[in-house]
Automatic annotation (TrEMBL):
It comes from Pelomonas baiyunensis. It holds the Pfam family Oxidored_FMN. This is NADH:flavin oxidoreductase/NADH oxidase family protein. Residues 6-341 form the NADH:flavin oxidoreductase/NADH oxidase N-terminal domain. The lineage of its organism: Bacteria, Pseudomonadati, Pseudomonadota, Betaproteobacteria, Burkholderiales. Keywords: Flavoprotein, Oxidoreductase. InterPro entries: Aldolase_TIM, NADH_flavin_oxidoreductase, OxRdtase_FMN_N.
């Protein structure tokens, strides 16, 4: 039997090899221990994925600033955070020959109002989620000094990730978070050096990548996750994304992941606000394939992939790596099963509710539930009630939000 190209190693520009082409995409674990630090749950969860045979694990997004979290169970890594839990996390992920990179992020305006912090953004443009908009507060436009601080924070978090033993970092520049807000003309209305033209809108991303590269040792992986588009009228377009890739070609990235969408237009879940139809599987493949012709760094695409033939089609399109999120939450041993010749397909939760925002939250809650199960040594559950998952997720979020607010109050 010939070996599937999916199980061929990949030599990255930093000189290090990945054992195969399958990557666990970033999924926020929401499992932080008090102090927003990783505890033993992270070790169990990542050891499970490592045993499953995936070549590279991208962690769920880790926050560069304790004042700005994507959710109250999120992990924070700042210049003075204790590293023990991070060391144990990286070590557990590396037990079977795969690499682990930390995804690093600042959410900008995508911070829940209940967190009780001031949300910063390129411009004072609030999220529009229709009747659910009040979940998020109105952001304040950042000053130049705050932009410089954010860049320094990304660099500090990356340096500490290297100290803790991670193999690399991925800068989150997708999904409507801060860097993605700077990239999009809908959220970036600035008329200084950080807004307007595409090079100005991309300046924060480029400066963060440069600062991160300057802060980490040689051979440490540096990547980014970029939207192929916002999928919103007047937003960050595919032509913009192509230009950003051309800018990034000069920055020596080891990996560029292509995704799409934001909270307002969740294309990463296969749904868009502007009504565009995405492919049923491998949502962003067509775009990734076009970019493969101009990108000098290895590309990866994530979104909707659950079957080996689709993973093979991604590689045949000139894309170097295949990102799997939901599939590895449902079936963590999928890579090993594919390698053993099993035609395994990971199930996808399908929540067909009328309220798209609630359906999206319930889908996320169902997937997150599987991470919580694996984190305590249980197997994922193939199915479950989306309503129950959403209700228990909301309870949990409320409890963790109280804990976060008490922690922040004590820090102040
Ligand atoms: C529970 C959950 C948490 C996620 N957290 C993150 C995250 O922290 N960072 C990120 O870039 N993407 C995150 N994503 C998006 C995934 O990385 C991926 O882009 C998306 O789920 C589409 O891929 P899939 O169809 O293979 O799941 C998350 C997705 C889910 C379901």
């Amino acid at each position: 039997m010939s070996v599937s190209p999916v199980f061929q190693p990949l030599l990255l520009p930093n000189g290090r090899s990945l054992p195969n082409r399958l990557v666990k995409a970033a999924m926020e674990e929401g499992l932080a221990a008090p102090g927003q630090l990783p505890g033993p749950e992270f070790e169990r969860l990542y050891r499970t994925w490592a045993e499953g045979g995936v070549g590279l694990m991208l962690t769920g997004n880790v926050m560069v600033d304790a004042r700005a979290l994507t959710g109250p169970g999120g992990v924070v890594l700042e210049a003075s955070s204790p590293l023990e839990g991070f060391r144990a996390w990286a070590g557990a992920a590396q037990t079977h020959g795969g690499q682990v990179w930390m995804q690093i992020n600042h959410p900008g305006r995508q911070v829940l109002a209940a967190m009780g912090e001031v949300a910063l953004a390129p411009s004072a443009v609030a999220l529009d989620l229709g009747k659910h908009s009040a979940m998020f507060g109105s952001p304040r436009a950042m000053t130049e000094a705050e932009i410089a601080e954010v860049i320094a924070r990304f660099a500090a978090t990356a340096r500490r990730a290297a100290e803790a033993g991670f193999d690399g970092v991925q800068v989150h520049a997708a999904h409507g978070y801060l860097i993605s807000q700077f990239l999009s003309p809908l959220t970036n209305r600035r008329n200084d050096a950080w807004g307007g033209s595409l090079p100005n809108r991309a300046r924060l991303l480029v400066e963060v990548v440069r600062a991160v590269k300057a802060a980490v040792p040689a051979g440490f992986g540096v990547g980014a996750k970029l939207n192929s588009a916002d999928f919103q009228r007047g937003g960050f377009s595919e032509a913009d994304a192509r230009e950003v890739v051309l800018l990034l070609n000069a920055e020596g990235l080891d990996l560029l992941e292509l995704s799409g969408g934001s909270y307002e237009s969740p294309a990463m879940q296969g749904r868009t606000a502007d009504g565009r139809t995405l492919a049923r599987e491998a949502y962003f493949l067509e775009f990734a394939q076009q970019l493969a012709a101009v990108a000098t760094m290895p590309l990866m695409t994530t979104g909707g992939i659950t079957r080996l033939p689709v993973a093979e089609q991604v590689l045949a399109s000139g894309v170097a790596l295949v990102g799997l999120g939901t599939a590895l939450a449902m079936v963590p041993e999928l890579p090993r099963r594919w390698q053993a010749g099993e035609p395994a397909v990971a199930p996808r939760p399908d929540v067909a509710w009328k309220d798209k925002a609630l359906a999206s939250l319930a889908t996320m809650a169902l997937v997150r539930r599987q991470l919580q199960r694996m984190a305590v040594g249980r197997a994922p559950q193939g199915s479950g009630s989306p309503l129950w998952a959403l209700i228990t997720d909301q309870w949990r979020t409320r409890r963790l939000t109280r804990r976060y607010r008490a922690w922040r109050a004590a820090a102040r």
